[in-house]
Amino acid sequence: MLKYFFSCLLITNIAIAQVGPQTQLPSHPRLLMLKDEERATQKNINSDKTWTVMHQSILAECDSLENVPPVEHIKIGRRLLDKSRECLRRVFYLSYAWRMTHKEKYLKRAEKELLAVSAFSDWNPTHFLDVAEMTLSVSIGYDWLYNDLSTASKNIIKEAILKKGLEPSMDAKYNGWLKASHNWNQVCNGGMAYGAMAIYEDEPALARTIINRAIESVGLPMKEYAPDGAYPEGYGYWGYGTSYNVMLISALEKAFGTDFGLAEKKGFLQTAGFMENMTGPSHIPFNFFDAGSGEELHPAMFWFADKLQDPTLLWMERNQVKPYQAKRYLRNTLLPAIMIWSKGIALNKIAHPLSTMWVGAGRNPVALMHSSWSDTAIYIGYKGGSPSLNHAHMDVGSFVMDADSIRWAMDFGMQNYESLESKSVDLWNMKQNSQRWQVFRYNNFAHNTLTINNQLQEVTGNASIVSFSKLPSFKNAIVSLTDIYKASLSKATRGIAVVNNTYVVVRDELEGGATEAIVRWTMATPASARIIDNKTIELTKNGKKLLLVVQEPASVVMKTWPTTPAHDYDAVNTGTLLVGFETTIAAGTRSSLQVLLVPGRSVNKAKQTIKPLATWPH
């Protein structure tokens, strides 16, 4: 292990040397909230009822833990992550409660949790996210309670941070995440930096190495936000990777008075706009890739809103912190950070964003369109990208749609990993014909896109946004899908537009390849469906209607397909079905598919003639 330590130390000092031997840190507490900053936090709490209720809810949650046994070393499959996260939630809440009230019951209960996990044989370094989250947890507890823990407890906890957290991170068997460009890098570097800052005075050389390493290494995933903030891994992993990235930056700012330029990396601050626009008026996110279907609270958004001095970024978040959401937000492991980052923002005075369309390029480009910011607005989330990306599905060209507060065109999102791994599914093999793509929720057959000749999308293919327009009467984005269907088509392009803020058009322009191509146009929906005629399907949900109308081509076969699992390892998809049609394109010929999605209230307004994609405004 020592050779890895000295090698990394040498490389780090040559490469960046941001934190040198003369660097001093503030005395404990030094992570996120410095000594005496409780007063500013209390002022924020007193400034708005929302923060008063949240503060009281955190304290009540801490009270409920008083007689609950500490977290135990119980793995689920190959992961200890569930226990690491619960430890983080408990310790962060309890440490916050102690600092804000100085009630000894919170100190003692936090100490009990810290000593319990410090006694674990390890924190599961073979799945290093588990170590990272546990190290973050124990480091916050150690730092925030430092002046009140017994010397014996501090020694035990400090040793655990060192031996079970930091030292394993120096071992090449476990630290492959240092070269990763996805969420693992952000989470693991964040956790290790917290551990290093927590015990800095006791292990200064190692601590400097780890902090400098984190500043350098985290630049890899931060490149993924360029050029304008779209996060490739989607909604769920933005909430994970970006949150830990912000935790790292915020801690560096507090401890060193600088973030060493991390926040200024191209696209990073703009990613707040990406997240704000990723949820529709149905309050369901655009949950492509491995994301759940529920709207979540993101503490990091409060950091962005403060950093950019733009409270409108919290337009969607404001609903997640209201008192009736307490049972949900109390499951958020990073919740106390909001009490620091919110700066007393009065959520009831937040105005909606001015822009109704957000477009991001990068490795997984998206176009996010609102007709307005009302709860009944039309919303489109539309993506390009590649199935080869981290946590990707075969969903290139897919979209979701809201209207009348209903998610009409949906994405099934993720399936629990353990439910697949426990049945020996080769889930993480991304090759073209791997078992991953046989999982129902992962392939293109179950997404709102095209399937050609009953084949999978090309894993190595990539689709970019070739043009877009924010014109209020015809918001649109056009994606080139040629590389995704190159085995069967000579050319494929899809455009989606919101027309006059009243209905949606989905237009595909295709050119056949060497042989005839059977094209399947699919949309997943939670609504009931009725085929009205050979061009129309009527969807019904919650007393509202949406018409799916095929304008082109002249000959199609309207269809619905069940979402019944194909394998015993597939998740159930109750209350959903697939709707769409099939058509045939002769070899070497051109064909256009044009579909209108018209809310019931706008049936008589869908009159505009839609022209070829080449004429769409951009």
Topology:
Elements: H1 2-15, H2 38-47, H3 49-64, H4 81-101, H5 104-118, H6 128-144, H7 151-169, H8 183-198, H9 204-217, H10 219-222, H11 234-256, H12 271-276, H13 299-307, H14 326-329, H15 335-341, E1 357-360, E2 366-370, E3 379-383, E4 399-403, E5 406-409, H16 417-421, E6 450-452, E7 465-469, E8 474-480, E9 489-499, E10 503-512, E11 517-525, E12 528-533, E13 536-541, E14 544-552, E15 557-562, E16 577-585, E17 590-599
Antiparallel strand pairs: 1-2, 2-3, 3-4, 4-5, 6-11, 7-8, 8-9, 9-10, 10-17, 11-16, 12-13, 13-14, 14-17, 15-16
Number of continuous helical runs: 16
User: Helicity, in percent?
Assistant: 25-40%
Oligomer: single chain
Compute the separation of the termini in Å.
56 Å
Low-confidence stretches: 1-17
Can you list the strand order of the major beta sheet? 7-8-9-10-17-14-13-12
Categorize the overall geometry.
Answer: elongated
| Rg computed from alpha carbons, rounded to a whole number of angstroms | 26 Å
Strand percentage:
15-25%
**Class derived from helix and strand content:** alpha+beta
Q: Quick one: how many beta strands?
A: 17
Mean pLDDT: 95
Largest sheet: 8 strands, antiparallel
